[in-house]
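Write out the 3D structure for:
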Amino acid sequence: MSSSNPAGEHRRGGGFGRIRGTDLAAVLHCAVREALLRLNPVTVAVYLLDEDHAELHLAMIGGSPPSLFTLPGWMSLDAPYASARALASGQPAVLVDPDPPEADQQHVPPYPYVALSVPVTDADRRFGALTVLRLETFGTFHATEHADLQEIGNELATALAQLAESGAAIAAGPTPMLVPVGSDPDTSICTPGWGVSGVPGSAGTSLMYPLRRLDDLLNQATTMDAIVGAARHCLMSPFRAQALVLASAGEGRLWVLGHSGTSSGMVRGLHGAGLDARTPAAEAMRGRPLFISDSRSTAADFGWSDGESQAEAYLPLIGGAQITELPFVGSGRVVGVCCLSFKEPRRFPPEERAVLRMMAGKLGAAVERVELNTKQRAVAEYLQRRLLPPTLRELPRMTTTARYRPATVTSKVGGDWYDVIELPGERMVLVVGDVEGHALESAAIMGQVRTAVAAYAAEGHRPAAVIDRTGRLLTQLGTDLLVTCCVVALDTLDGTAEVALAGHPAPLVLGPDGTVGALEAPANMPLGIDAPEAYQGREHTLEPGYVLMLYSNGLGDCTASDPDADARALLSAGSREAGTDLEQLADHLITDSSPRHRRDDAVLLLARCEGAVGEDGPRSGDLHIQRRDLQGVKTARDFVHDRLSSWDLTDMSDALQLIASEIVTNALIHAGSDVDVRLRAFADHVRLEVRDSDSNPPVPSPLALREEENVEAEHGRGLLIVEALAGVWNSSPNGRGKTVSVEVPIAKAEP
């Protein structure tokens, strides 16, 4: 298989009678060896029909790496491959590039092989097909070569018929038999820069190592960063590229998924580029790889250059594609493009192009898998969040906050939820629950149970009656899933708290002195089980200034021997770190309890009894701003001014108006949702809260931030003003969005 042997010079193997043997393997090996000698291909393959005569299966293949790994293991009889076409037509079939470059495109042809196949049949029976691959640099096959291969195919059919008459089974084994070739240096392809020069098979085997290594790394990749890292180690580095960029298509444009190396110029040219533009990457997105040996060709052919490379390669990423004898027609859709740039002009030898194409196929499948998992996870999280309350109800004497964190080891939706239900007489009901499993049924049951609990609580039933009625309703729904639940009814005037549990952890209470205890109650049975007795609750009296913590099992380590003790220690440590700020306490609790691989969803609900200002308790005011309200920011400023004036805090008005203006502007622009504003005055500070539906936190932007790093900044210049004016500010996701809270101290009057 020397590349120096010109097309048309064939070494004859001796004619008929040389293909024979006592078993199938010996007969096939004779045919493969004869084709290798007479046609000088890089690969020879024999396909045999299966028992049902519905598919062709690869029985034996002879060649050297990487060419012998480029053929499909099986194909249907109507597949557009040379082997299937030859058997169907009974005539030799040639497969060349079906999508030749345009006349003004001077790039290297996309794939290094041309296929020729002949049927293997006799007068009475069809056996399969004999196929050879040749480097495209040799040109297409001549008529004499068609005749030579057909002669070998006919002789193979005769030998197979004799075996069949003797009772031997003519069928491919469970895996193809591989016949390595290249024992003679004159018949071994040598790719410069790979392996040991003069050692047969060294170059091909060396080329296959990064491909197999890429397989291992991509099997472990669960994020786009991991895919880019695998490509950097197994593709960019071995081929000595200076930059690598992976991009996908969406809304008619290219979007960069990840990049490595000296890639800034290529990233700028690719990100957001239209798919209808005549660029190398857009051409590759149509399914045709491009190998550009000199960047001057890029400028000449496409009128585009990144200004940093001397040679480039653009490889279509085919989702779920197999590398086949017809590599130009992928078996999957194009999901992206892999772009490589090189700092020196270079050729792309045929075997390098073969390996690069195989690598692109593996990258495409990995990109498709990770993007699909990302989309599924986003849908699952969206469904979960839509079933959570959009805002938390609060009373003048009671502040609440919540956190929700989905499991990280599954892309499926869970069934954890929380709720805050306001009742007349400054009473409030807190709820946390957990539906077992991670499936759409879990989310559906969660929605039904949450609605039932809220309805029964709003009717005024006590917590034990609420979960008792909800349990009976769940049993009637006929689900096999169990639900645990904790319901706490609070009276903020006298400090009473009634607790009812349905197989759920008891709520914890943080006292004003920093001690942590539990509001014990009968454990009862989880919902969904026919309970033999009615559910029982227990009443407690709480001291003023307490913090109540309700949570689900996912908050802590699922392997802990005593999860209740761990939760108490977590609350105690969090209170020391956060002080009196409820939002910071919630952040500490959810962050400190988060394992790297969370196996279950986690829900946290906190409620704090606020201190009173005079006899009437904390003063508060609320404002609702509709999305796209052009006067929303002005309305927020007027609301802050009017409330502070009525509370004799006019001296704080200017600062808080400016703060409210910046935060509300961010919420209206970036969240695109309704915005809720709450203002409360305590003995020593005023608290401003702005809620929207976007869970992403606002990002303060330093004045020296580079342009490409400022893309994600949420009008961060204004947040610098907020930081300067506010004593404390925080952003807290709550499952359905976030709350940005600001605390400004009240200046004490001088005596």
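The radius of gyration is 35 Å.
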